[in-house]
Design a protein that fits this description.
Radius of gyration: 58 Å
Largest sheet: 8 strands, mixed
Helix content: 40-55%
Number of helices: 26
Distance between the termini: 199 Å
Strand order of the largest sheet: 10-9-11-12-13-18-19-20
Oligomer: single chain
Structural class: alpha/beta
Length: 931
């Protein structure tokens, strides 16, 4: 009995290892053995229900002799089995995630049933195609992931059961013969999964057993890592391409400051991370805030998110990678905060062109730009799916559940009481006729994924089984690693007519359609196609419109562009934020961040983007600064000419002879030149004009004051000599007087000609004199090369003559009134000195004025004209008056000898001495010596 029990135990142990219960030739396992095996299955089943987070758990299952199919049968999990020569796996979210403690929830009509039926449709098309895998039938094992990654991992163990190596050499039946073990179902490749988190979890298992996987909807950038997910491929572009497209869209709209919103999980977080990484590499785009939406948000969470977004209110653009529910809640919170139209959303493909996320929130979503992988509606699938019924679609074990949900009715089942709240299904209902139908967006990609696997198997069959009508030995079993290489090499036109291919990471090329949700100025509100992205952006900006129908793209920038002529002063740590500072004064904008000063002869342009030549000006004849000096000079020249003409006309009359004709003509010439210099000072500077300015500026005064100095000196010497003797002094003849005058004048001429030799006359442009704070008023002044110092030096000799003449005039003040011209010359020199004393502070006091040149020129010319007018008026106008209006006084007077002059001088001296003595209290009587 004990031996028999041990044999039973041994048989139970070994039969439990079998994939399916072994069938023996002469005997079968006893009911006791079967019960023992069943208990062991249940024990392992309970262990396998724990969360499988690593591949170590899978290896533990293999070591324990676990059979997933047996577990599946015991746990009540359903799957679709399609017989075929080669079996493909399928993972679809037929049901939604269930509440806590329950793996599966409600059925998902579009993302679940539509996609799964697309795989069945593709298999039918391939199996009926005589050119693709001829004489080979593709089968399938399709599982429900229930939109949960851990549950999907448990389900996917079904795909690897045939690859778990077990030692069955000691398995014997009761009669001692080896059992007949059926060949296990082998899955050569898997279509799916849908969610990125599910694909990541499943890919970790499938790569361990070298089973290629092609996803139709997983877009997480993480799956592009060919080192970790080397057996994973996808017919949809990864979110890294989508993120690149979104970066291009943001830049095309001129935004540089945006916030991001991501649902917690692989899809949202990976998408935003890719967007941030690409924007950082591209430059010129800053992230104001990166906000994560919790997987289980608390009440008020979305209101807090909107409040946080408003902390950087300039960042109106919001990049959103979130699921439909989170998108809807964000829009609702923005509406509650009365921010309709403020945020400008750029949504990922989870938003796409769906109505559900924006239902009843259309005004908040207006202007939202969304992106969707380029796709097309497959007519063949529409025809296939709308003809599905309960009678012709028994292979889909979930179709009855779909039927109930789609038609809102209840099917009667044996032993199940019907729900009185729902009508009974008749079975005569038809899809799209009795219910709303629209092809789910990823159907195209499911079909392309199945065809990609089929094309890879077809190429593999051609290479390994040439001429064979079915699966040859080289493809039994199919080598997963070799199949992967064929998958990566496929290139064919997919169901929508676009190319299906994979890069080295197993990613499909990026092809996206771009939509904008529009409400205003349109007869049919909704999503409008505005562009596409295939490695580069093509956007129809003229088709875009924003809140209220505005065609101008709203701003989403940290700082607005600086005005013309303003440089950017960057905010530390935020490359998209800056302060604008004006390039002031004579600076221009060298580059975006720096100002530079224009060259000395230039000034900035009005917009301060460069420099322009400074206008060159001169004193114009029409200027008020020139009109007054010219008027005085013209009057003076006329008056001087009149005096000269009068003197020439009455050259031999007593008054003209008495005034000293020779020196008078010299003096009048000097006065004429003084007036004439005004025209040279106002004329446009040139080499000739500058030369005459040097020559005549001091020459006129030099001639005038040399003649007057000679006259006063002659009177003074005669007067002084008369006090000492009756012998006249030397050099008082007219010829001597002329020689003395010309000697004095020659000093001035010699200095001027030396100046000519040392520095030839030329012009220059002075840009410093008229350079006010506002560069718009800056001017370069064309002038001769005479500085203020050289100008004063040119006049200094004449000033010296004037001062000397004044001294002699003072000394000759005691000459009798009837004696010659001593008194008029004295008054002339006193007045002239006053004029030039007033000239000095005016001339030098205006050196800092912006109109220095004009003021100084006017002051100099007016002072010279006034001094000439004083000389002319004091010395010659009275004589001309007598000559013309009182000719009776122009008669010969008694000629006085030098002796009479000497006596007059002596008397004058004595009178002055008496006056002095009386002032001292003494009276002295002098005898009368006049004879």
């Amino acid at each position: 009995m004990g031996e028999h029990w041990q044999q039973n135990q041994s048989r139970r142990k070994h039969c439990a290892v079998a994939e399916v219960p072994a069938t023996c030739m002469a005997a079968t396992m006893t009911s006791q053995q079967h019960a023992s095996s069943l208990c062991r299955h249940r024990m392992i089943s309970r262990a396998s229900r724990q969360h499988v987070g690593s591949l170590v758990h899978v290896m533990w299952i293999a070591m324990m002799g676990f059979t997933p199919e047996s577990w599946a049968s015991s746990s009540g999990t359903h799957s679709i089995k399609i017989e075929g020569d080669i079996t493909l796996g399928g993972l679809f979210p037929v049901h939604s995630r269930g509440p806590a403690g329950v793996p599966c929830g409600e059925i998902k009509k579009e993302k679940g049933i539509h996609r799964m039926e697309a795989m069945l449709y593709a298999l039918d098309q391939i199996n009926s195609d005589p050119d693709l895998l001829p004489n080979i039938t593709l089968g399938a094992r399709i599982l429900d992931t229930c939109s949960r990654d851990t549950y999907a991992l448990e389900q996917s163990l079904t795909f690897v059961q045939a690859l778990i190596q077990k030692d069955n050499s000691d398995v014997r039946c009761s009669n001692g013969e080896p059992p007949i073990i059926p060949k296990p179902e082998r899955v050569v490749g898997v279509i799916g999964a849908s969610a990125s988190s599910v694909s990541i979890m499943v890919a970790n298992v499938l790569r361990l057993f070298a089973i290629p996987q092609i996803s139709y909807a997983s877009t997480a950038p993480e799956l592009s890592d060919n080192n970790r997910y080397d057996f994973f491929s996808r017919v949809v572009p990864p979110d890294s391409f989508q993120a690149q497209a979104m970066v291009d869209i943001v830049k095309a709209m001129g935004w540089n400051y945006v916030s991001t919103l991501a649902s917690e999980g692989n899809y949202g977080e990976s998408g935003v991370d890719a967007f941030i990484q690409i924007s950082r590499e591209a430059g010129g785009l800053c992230i104001a805030q990166a906000i994560k939406i919790p997987r289980e948000p608390r009440p008020g969470e979305f209101d807090k998110i909107i409040k946080r977004l408003m902390e950087t209110s300039n960042a109106r653009g919001v990049i959103i990678f979130a699921n439909e529910d989170d998108i809807k809640r964000v829009l609702e919170a923005a509406k509650r905060a009365n921010l309709t139209g403020h945020f400008l959303f750029v949504g990922s493909d989870s938003w796409g062109a769906k109505i559900s996320p924006i239902l009843n929130q259309e005004d908040v979503a207006e202007g939202a730009v969304t992106i969707l992988p380029k796709r097309a509606s497959i007519e063949g699938f529409d025809q296939y799916f709308t003809t599905r019924s309960l009678e012709n679609n028994r292979r889909n074990i979930w179709f009855a559940e779909f039927w109930e949900d789609d038609f809102k009715c209840k099917l009667t089942r044996p032993g199940v009481r019907g729900d009185s709240g729902l009508r009974k299904c008749t079975g005569e209902e038809r899809i799209s006729r009795d219910s709303a139908y629209e092809q789910e967006g990823k159907v195209q990609f499911v079909i392309d994924a199945v065809y990609a696997m089929a094309h890879a198997l077809h190429s593999m069959h051609i290479d390994l089984c040439p001429g064979s009508m079915g699966v040859c030995d080289k493809m039994d079993p199919v080598d997963g690693r070799m199949l992967l290489s064929y998958i990566r090499a496929v290139n064919f036109n997919g169901s929508a007519g676009t190319g299906v291919m994979f890069n080295e990471n197993g990613d499909a090329p990026g092809r996206y359609d771009i939509f904008q949700y529009q409400l205003s100025n349109t007869t049919s509100p909704g999503y409008k196609f505005i562009g596409q992205w295939t490695n580069h952006l093509r956007l129809s900006a003229e088709e875009m419109q924003w809140s209220g129908g505005d065609r101008v793209v709203p701003d989403s920038v940290c700082s607005f562009p600086c005005e013309s002529g303003e440089r950017k002063r960057m905010v530390k740590g935020v490359p998209c934020c800056w302060h604008c500072e004006l390039c002031d004064g004579y600076q221009y904008l060298l580059d975006e961040f720096n100002c530079d000063t224009c060259p000395f002869d230039m000034r900035p342009t009005p917009n301060r983007t460069g420099c322009r030549p400074t206008p060159i000006i001169k004193l114009e004849w029409s200027s008020p600064w020139a009109i007054i000096p010219v008027f005085l000079a013209v009057l003076g020249i006329l008056a001087t000419s009149g005096v000269i003409i009068t003197f020439i006309r009455f050259n031999d009359t007593p008054i003209v002879r008495a005034s000293g004709r020779e020196l008078s003509y010299v003096l009048l010439t000097g006065i004429f030149l003084i007036y004439f210099i005004t025209f040279l000072m106002i004329a446009e500077p040139g080499a000739v004009v500058c030369a005459f300015r040097r020559l005549l500026l001091g020459l006129g005064m030099c001639i005038s004051y040399s003649a007057m100095l000679t006259k006063t000196n002659r009177i003074y010497r005669i007067f002084e000599q008369g006090k000492k003797s009756v012998t006249p002094p030397k050099f008082i003849s007219p010829t001597s007087q002329l020689i003395i005058t010309f000697i004095l004048i020659s000093v001035q001429l010699l200095a001027v000609f030396i100046w000519f030799g040392v520095m030839p006359p030329h012009t220059n442009v002075d840009f410093d004199e008229l350079r006010p704070p506002n560069p718009e008023y800056a001017r370069g002044i064309l002038k001769c090369d005479m500085s203020d110092l050289s100008l004063i030096g040119c006049l200094s000799y004449s000033m010296g003559l004037m001062v000397t003449c004044t001294v002699y005039a003072i000394k000759s003040r005691g000459v009798p009134e009837t004696f010659n011209e001593a008194k008029p010359i004295g008054f002339t020199m006193y007045t002239t000195c006053i004029i030039w004393l007033a000239f000095v502070p005016i001339f030098f006091g205006t050196s800092q004025s912006t109109e220095k040149m004009f003021i100084q020129t006017t002051t100099l010319t007016v002072s010279m004209s006034l001094s000439a007018t004083v000389s002319l008026g004091m010395l010659y106008i009275p004589k001309v008056y007598v000559i013309i209006f009182h000719p009776e006084q122009n008669v010969q007077k008694r000629k006085r000898s030098f002796k009479a002059v000497a006596q007059a001088a002596t008397v004058s001296t004595h009178l002055s001495q008496k006056s002095s003595d009386k002032q001292n209290g003494e009276t002295k009587v002098e005898p009368d010596r006049s004879q």
